[in-house]
Amino acid sequence: MPRSVNVVAARHRRKKMMKMAKGYFGRRKNVWTVAKNAIEKGLVYAYRDRKVKKRDFRSLWIQRINAGAREHGISYSQLMGALKKADINLNRKVLADLAMNHSEAFKSIVEKVK
To answer: Is residue 32 domain-resident?
Structure first.
């Protein structure tokens, strides 16, 4: 009896992967083995960078808070320590937004904790 292979499922799997390779350059978009490797590597980068994105944003927020705080004569670390002591629970995302877009509100927070 001949060997039975589920070609329908295999083709579907390959088609799905090749669809993901759309927009790649050269053989990465149309040669199965090259495309498969490129897609797998891309998925690894996507997984990794979802974590890195969180780190990047946190560091951006810290830089913005620091810049805003130094305009009012206090460093980032002193400001964060004073906020903790004063029991003001604002996260870095909100503080960075205040420092960038609502300077008068940020100034009042800094004055409150000084």
So the answer is: yes
pLDDT, tens digit (0-9, with 9 covering 90-100), for 81-94: 999 999 999 999 99
Distance, CA of 108 to chain centre:
30
Give residue-wise pLDDT tens across range 1-45: 788 889 999 999 999 999 999 999 999 999 999 999 999 999 999
- The CATH number of the domain holding residue 44 is 1.10.1900.20
Q: How many CB atoms lie within 10 A of CB 74?
A: 19
- Residue 58 in contact with residue 92, Cβ under 8 Å? yes
Cα angle 60, 61, 63 (rounded to 5 degrees) comes to 65
> Has residue 106 been placed in a domain?
yes
The count of structural domains within the chain is 1
- Asked if 75 contacts 43 with a C-beta cutoff of 8 angstroms, the reply is no
C-alpha–C-alpha distance, residues 55 and 31, integer Å = 36
Domain that holds residue 105: 7-113
Residue-wise DSSP of 42-63: HHHHHHHHHHHHHHHHHHHHHH
